[in-house]
């Protein structure tokens, strides 16, 4: 028999590729493919939207409005991130279980906090926002909390994973020298994860800007709100102006975090 | 050099702190948001009413006791699942078709040993496209797409795919940049064409990491399906919005239950699949 058939590693990869392809093919059958899928004026609208891309509305009023809503979007993202860092710090430390010694308590505390973080990040920030708006009404805090919960869940989990993955030797050395748990955390764990957690937090900040832009959907101002208003007025040229501002905002944060990461990793 | 490095990082930290303080200030002063207003008696009343509504207290026929609603939610769940798979498929195909010129080592010719005059030009165009497509959030794409397509799962899948195309493309391009270039150069010097290079040189080496990224994005897409539904792109999200508008809060409980089920299932499957190919 040909030995190549026993090449297991390649085999599994191919099986998974085939399964994924099959799933995709199957999913296509769920759509009834006929010309009814597009609005009667759909093609014309598509052309108008595409044409407006090259002629964004650059009049003074719109630019000023775009700048103002960019600040709103940025400020919500930054305010949300400040809460995210606090949540992630405390939840991350408890979820990694490094503060408690091996034994019964750790067996309960770790899964408890990990599960909590899992639920926080399972629900999308817009759904949180909607739940907040439905329960406490339209408020800036609704948007900030809605952003902070799932992002805190993600960052907290990554922080906990990082804390668990660091080499044990320096910690053991600290403990042998008589350091308490808190001292080991402050002088051993935190300095070792500082660079990677900062660069990941910057990446989440970039995502937070996108999210805070779409928070407008539940009635909070910002770029997404303006995009929606302009779309409802069929002013596609204004839509693209706001979209370009959003892209610029995301790009600036992206460049900043790239520079920061480069210097931290060195 | 050392001093400069330190000062950039420190300056960034101060700038970020300043940005956060400024943001809180502008939100609290500029928009007169106040935390104490949040916890008034009226708000507490509404909040407790909302949560009682979610649990179906004092409700004659809560949605989660009704077989009809369960069947409906199950159908929507399958629809959502299909939408996420379709979106991942579209995004993957588009990213795979464009990824080769987007890799830095292809553009400068170090991977394929063939430097083309349009190398950096196509690199710039494709990378620019990636940046554009991923900088626009899914929901905004969905808002635009819904103007062209009729509501259903197809516009939702396209909107999700448009956003993830840029992300997957960037991640794939980075995988190609990190590849060991020797096998590909070897193929190239024995006269393989572009397509053959991709099929026999790049794909076998990069496939495991491509698959990992596809599965990872699928998890994220699953979480986002509900959001594109809000603007009418089908699935659980559309029903969620309708139920919210009609104040059918017990429906919301049921939909959230199925949503969480989907998200956890996607996490579980993708984790197991990643272990499977390791």
TrEMBL record, chain A:
Positions of transmembrane segments: 15-33, 74-100, 126-149, 208-227, 239-257
Main location: membrane
Topology in the lipid bilayer: Multi-pass membrane protein
Pfam families listed in its UniProt record: BPD_transp_1 (PF00528)
PROSITE patterns membership: ABC_TM1
Localisation: Cell membrane
UniProt name for this protein: ABC transmembrane type-1 domain-containing protein
Source organism (scientific name): Mesobacillus selenatarsenatis (strain DSM 18680 / JCM 14380 / FERM P-15431 / SF-1)
TrEMBL record, chain B:
Coarse class of the protein's main subcellular location: membrane
Presence of keyword Transmembrane helix: yes
Topology with respect to the bilayer: Multi-pass membrane protein
Keywords: Cell membrane, Membrane, Transmembrane, Transmembrane helix, Transport
TM ranges: 81-103, 139-162, 197-216, 221-240, 246-269
Superkingdom of origin: Bacteria
Subcellular localization, as worded in the UniProt entry: Cell membrane
Entry annotated with the keyword Cell membrane: yes
A GO CC annotation given for this chain: plasma membrane
PANTHER family: ABC TRANSPORT SYSTEM PERMEASE PROTEIN P69, PHOSPHONATES TRANSPORT SYSTEM PERMEASE PROTEIN
Protein name as catalogued: ABC transmembrane type-1 domain-containing protein
Organism: Mesobacillus selenatarsenatis (strain DSM 18680 / JCM 14380 / FERM P-15431 / SF-1)
């Amino acid at each position: 028999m040909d030995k190549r058939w026993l090449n297991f590693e390649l085999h599994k990869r191919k099986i998974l590729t085939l399964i994924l392809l099959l799933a995709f093919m199957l999913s296509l059958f769920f759509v009834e493919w006929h010309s009814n899928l597009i609005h009667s004026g759909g093609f014309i609208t598509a052309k108008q939207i595409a044409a407006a891309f090259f002629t964004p509305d650059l009049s003074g009023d719109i630019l000023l409005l775009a700048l103002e809503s960019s600040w709103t979007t940025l400020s919500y993202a930054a305010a949300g991130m400040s809460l995210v860092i606090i949540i992630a710090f405390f939840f991350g430390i408890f979820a990694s279980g490094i503060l408690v010694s091996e034994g019964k308590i750790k067996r309960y505390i770790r899964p408890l906090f990990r599960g909590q973080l899992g639920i926080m990040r399972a629900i999308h920030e817009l759904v949180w926002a909607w739940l907040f708006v439905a329960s406490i009404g339209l408020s800036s805090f609704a948007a900030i909390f809605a952003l902070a919960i799932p992002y805190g869940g993600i960052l907290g989990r990554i922080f906990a994973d990082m804390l668990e993955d660091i080499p044990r030797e320096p910690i053991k050395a600290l403990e042998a020298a008589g350091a308490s748990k808190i001292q080991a955390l402050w002088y051993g764990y935190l300095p070792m994860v500082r660079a990677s957690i900062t660069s990941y937090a910057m990446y989440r900040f970039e995502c937070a800007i996108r999210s805070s832009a779409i928070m407008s959907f539940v009635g909070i101002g910002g770029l997404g709100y303006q995009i929606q208003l302009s779309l409802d007025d069929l002013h596609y040229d204004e839509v693209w102006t706001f979209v370009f501002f959003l892209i610029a905002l995301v790009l600036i944060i992206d460049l900043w975090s790239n520079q920061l990461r480069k210097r931290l990793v060195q | 050099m050392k001093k400069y490095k330190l000062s950039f990082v420190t300056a960034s930290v101060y700038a970020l702190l300043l940005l956060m303080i400024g943001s809180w200030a502008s939100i609290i002063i500029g928009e007169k948001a106040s935390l104490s207003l949040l916890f008034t008696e009226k708000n507490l009343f509404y909040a407790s009413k909302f949560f009682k509504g979610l649990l179906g207290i004092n409700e004659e026929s809560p949605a989660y006791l009704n077989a009809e609603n369960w069947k409906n939610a199950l159908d929507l769940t399958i629809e959502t699942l299909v939408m996420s798979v379709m979106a991942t498929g579209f995004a993957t195909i588009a990213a795979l078709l464009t990824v080769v010129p987007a890799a830095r080592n292809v553009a400068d010719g170090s991977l394929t040993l063939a430097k083309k005059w349009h190398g950096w030009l196509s690199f710039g165009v494709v990378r620019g496209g990636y940046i554009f497509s991923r900088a626009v959030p899914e929901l905004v794409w969905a808002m635009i797409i819904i103007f062209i397509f009729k509501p259903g799962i197809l516009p939702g899948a396209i909107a999700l795919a448009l956003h993830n195309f840029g992300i997957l493309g960037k991640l794939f391009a980075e995988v190609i940049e990190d590849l060991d270039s020797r096998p590909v150069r070897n193929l190239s010097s024995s006269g393989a064409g572009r397509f053959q290079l991709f099929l026999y040189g790049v794909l076998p080496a990069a496939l495991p990491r491509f698959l990992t990224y596809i599965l990872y994005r699928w998890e994220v897409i699953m979480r986002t399906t509900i959001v594109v539904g809000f603007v009418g792109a089908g699935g659980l999200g559309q029903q969620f919005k309708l139920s919210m508008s009609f104040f059918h809060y017990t429906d919301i409980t049921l939909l959230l239950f199925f949503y969480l089920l989907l998200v956890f299932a996607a996490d579980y499957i993708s984790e197991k699949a990643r272990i499977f190919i390791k």
